[in-house]
Amino acid sequence: MRYSLIVRIGLLGAVITGAAAEASAQVQERVYPPAAPNAADTTARDKQQFANPSVLGMGPSKGLIVRYERMPRFGVSSSAQVQGLNDFNTDATKNARLSIKGYIPAWNHPHLKVIVGLSYEREEFQFDKLPTSYELYDNIENKGLKSTAAQIAIIRPVDDVHWYLARVKGELSGDYTSSQLSRSDYSRFSAEAIYGWKRSPNFSWGVGFQYGYTFGRLSIYPAVIYNRTFNSHWGIEALAPARITARYNVNESSILYAGYTVDGYNYIVHLSRDPLERRNSDGSVDRSKAPLNTLELRETEVKFRLRWEREIFSFLWLGAEGGYRYNYAFDAFDRTNADREKIIDSKFNGAPYASLELFITPPRKLLEKSGVRR
């Protein structure tokens, strides 16, 4: 069923890509820094000797990012998938996310770039009529679902046409606290590798794979990078099927984006009440399976979004984003027994969302001194 989502998203990406090409307008969301120079910057173009995924006209590099996202009230429905649980409906009165990310160029040479990233993300829920008397919701009510991660990204240009990109990420994800933290419980791992071609300063693309939780559960799937600038205003940035974004450069200090993104989250949630016991069809306790003290929560959503990035100072930018979120899954799984059976199938109603973001970039004067302009 997850793979049917990938197919549908891929078809949606193809439609968006085709329509944008006809309008001579498109682009993707940059995968990694560095900043790309403006299309009018022939000096930076002439000096380019090594290929990379970036193209002219893409937004500035992001060194430190602080983002807050919020959704209004929306309906939630859960359907029990095992004996001994009930179905349940309620409203979520709050769903908010805070994320802080930082990227450091540990090695920055034309033939090799190594970027170290650190991040902290926290998601919070509040539900109507507490306690809800439902195990899952009462356990995540007002409890931070956190993800603390470190990653290394490597961009290895081969020559002026070919390039490699690889990323490895390790994280701790769940409702842990410092006193409860168990690395074996909460640890997660993801990776990606892509081989690409820089056809011109305005066009770069590549193919490879991603291995991670973008679609809720740990899986491997193909990935295609497509970065293209069509003229001084329009471009497209894609890491399909996970996201496709059209870009419009208003000027060197203002950029508009429109597109979609697929986001996946995977949390370990500890049950604070008595362990959840699996039951047989006659209601008796299933002694062949261990009681559950934890659940694996898999969340997958598709966002259709509009975004505006604006320079405030030479080193500080503001990002404002809004759109509509479609929730594909919010499911709880048995992570104790070998069958890894789905325990609860939940759905969130679609809802609008909004976010604000501040991010620090290399100062404009520093880039100009080095011969690079945004």
From TrEMBL:
Residues 36-55 are annotated as: Disordered. Residues 185-270 form the DUF6268 domain. This is DUF6268 domain-containing protein. Residues 1-19 form the signal peptide. InterPro entries: DUF6268. The keyword Chaperone does not apply. Keywords: Signal. It comes from Hymenobacter negativus. It holds the Pfam family DUF6268.
